[in-house]
Design brief:
The chain has 18 helices and eleven strands. The protein is of the alpha+beta class. The strands form three sheets. Strands 3-4-6-8-7 form a five-stranded mixed β-barrel. Strands 1-2 form a two-stranded antiparallel sheet. A hairpin with a 2-residue loop joins strand 4 and strand 5. Helix 1 runs parallel beside helix 12 and helix 8 packs across helix 16.
């Protein structure tokens, strides 16, 4: 039973135990998708027992699963079996989703709304949603590969028509994860524009883009639009490459930073109008959900929105909360509803990034603060502006390092400096842009800020052109396991003795380095 003292609750909204449940689900899904043998059940049962062993530590005795953790062995076994059955269901859902039969194939007229169109060095394509084929509605999205892209005149959110031979998409993780059911190959000349899509989302996005175009230059407008809604279709390819190199790509993919800035902005406005706190939370929650809808429910923004809603619930009801609990809850919800999301690179990067920040930011921040503990007031004030962003970036990169190398083959070396210098300016540009979209006359302030946005673009390009701006290496997939075991062994969520911790860290780190050098 919760006891309150002076309005403060001694138990908080903590679902950290579900983190191990989420990890167990992820591992089970991967094992099930790769193996159909009875070994799957043995491994799954092992992970279930492992998760229960972690949750039954004394430090978890005051958590939300008290009814399990403080009960006898019978309930613990029942709970383990429930976890096993649920994870098996998710794994089966994942396995069967890749074998779903699609029937709408053949030649005919395809009509749909352009969700995005992307020119690349080798080819170009447009992604259609809300599509019909020969008058029948299609469940899912269609990738239309284009040749002769220089003749393509349609824009994002336009409704287009094209005569195609529709083919079933392969049962690959990318297509399943993005709900792409079909594909076609056509000439860009064959694409006919039928007009603008009139759905609520399309109208708002088109209006927002028009407002930004009025007050900003072409490159600046495309950059800000990508930062707000995650659509980089109109963003210059060189800008995208520069931001990837300097470690600013997270600002182009709507995520926790966007939700946090948006929430602080609206709660500040509501506070100015004297709105009570609980109504501030309720209205801001609705705004966050609506913003998630405008961004197309991308995994990164969906994860951030669920975490923010968890934070609000804790504030309203139990008052105490932490990021790891919010992340655990968000991961479990997303995996329960969309188990195939584990195959998404954006989902993996988003979750691992927040996990790194939640686990390693505070220790890194305390370590950096030791260096200025005996310094003067001026030095401490300056350090306050640097230590926080540095700790966040280093913590995120500690967790993301092998994923970035595995998927992209490189990791940014200048990213820390670029984030410390440019991210505050990017945050100001984001807030001013949202304000301009909501109140058109405030665009004058955004127009004055336009040179700063141009400076951001030029500075990111300059960072990207520096010698040794990125580290290029492609580690083998199996080495990632030992890397994460190494960083987990030094984290506070693994309950082992200090000596054992250091021995485990040494073994895993040496194994990881051996894989990098030998293989």
């Amino acid at each position: 039973m919760n006891n309150k003292s002076g309005g403060y609750v001694d138990k908080f909204f903590n679902v950290r135990p579900l983190l191990f449940f989420a990890i167990f689900i992820v591992l089970t899904i991967l094992v099930c998708s790769l193996s159909k043998s009875i070994g799957f059940w043995i491994i799954a049962a092992w992970f279930a027992l492992l998760s229960l062993a972690f949750m039954n530590k004394r430090r978890y005795k005051d958590k939300i699963l008290d009814f399990v953790l403080n009960s006898g062995w019978f309930k613990n076994i029942c709970f383990g079996l429930c976890v096993l059955v649920c994870a098996s269901f998710f794994a089966t859902n994942f396995a069967f989703s890749s074998q779903k039969d699609f029937t709408a194939e053949g030649k005919g007229e395809l009509i749909g709304v352009i969700e995005k169109h992307t020119p690349t060095t080798a080819s170009a394509y447009m992604l259609l949603s809300s599509a019909t084929f020969n008058g029948e509605k299609i469940d899912g999205k269609i990738t239309v590969w284009l040749y002769g892209y220089e003749n393509f005149t349609a824009e994002t959110l336009d409704k287009v028509s094209v005569s195609v031979r529709l083919k079933k998409a392969d049962a690959e993780a990318y297509y399943i994860n993005n709900n792409i059911k079909y594909y076609a190959n056509v000439s860009a000349n064959a694409v006919k524009t039928l007009g603008e899509d009139k759905s609520l989302r399309s109208v708002i996005l088109r209006y927002s883009k028009g407002v930004l175009d009025n007050f900003l230059g072409e490159k600046e407008s495309a950059l800000i639009y990508s930062m707000i809604f995650g659509d980089s279709s109109d963003l210059d390819q060189n800008v995208r490459e520069d931001w990837n190199i300097v470690g600013l790509a997270h600002a182009l993919a709507v995520s926790g930073m966007n939700v946090a800035l948006l929430a602080m902005f609206f709660m500040f406005i509501l506070r100015l109008f004297g709105v009570r706190f609980k109504w501030q939370c309720a209205l801001t929650a609705l705004i966050a959900i609506f913003y998630c809808y405008l961004c197309g429910f991308a995994y990164s923004i969906l994860r951030a929105t669920i975490m923010f809603l968890s934070f609000l619930v804790a504030k309203l009801i139990l008052e105490r909360n932490d990021h790891l609990s919010n992340l655990s809850f968000a991961v479990c919800v997303i995996l329960c509803v969309m188990p195939y999301s584990i195959a998404s690179v954006s989902f993996q990067l988003s979750v691992v990034c927040v996990f790194g920040i939640a686990v390693f930011m505070m220790p890194i921040e305390k370590f950096l603060e030791r260096g200025v503990r005996n310094s003067g007031v001026v030095v401490k004030k300056l350090a306050d502006f640097i230590i926080g962003p540095t700790a966040i970036y280093v913590a995120a990169m500690t967790a993301l390092f092998p994923l970035l190398l595995y998927y992209f083959g490189y990791v940014s070396v200048v990213g820390l400096f670029a984030n410390i210098i440019l991210l505050p300016l990017i945050s100001i540009a984001f807030v001013l842009s949202v304000l301009t979209i909501l109140v058109w006359v405030s665009g004058f302030a955004l127009w004055l800020f336009n040179p700063i946005i141009t400076l951001i673009l030029n500075a990111s390009a300059a960072f990207a052109e520096l010698p040794f701006a990125w580290l290029e290496i492609a580690p083998p997939a199996v080495s990632m396991i030992f890397y994460y075991l190494a960083i987990l062994s030094i984290s506070s969520i693994i309950f082992i003795k200090r000596r054992t911790r250091y021995i485990a860290l040494s073994v895993f780190a040496l194994t990881y380095l051996a894989f990098l050098v030998i293989i």
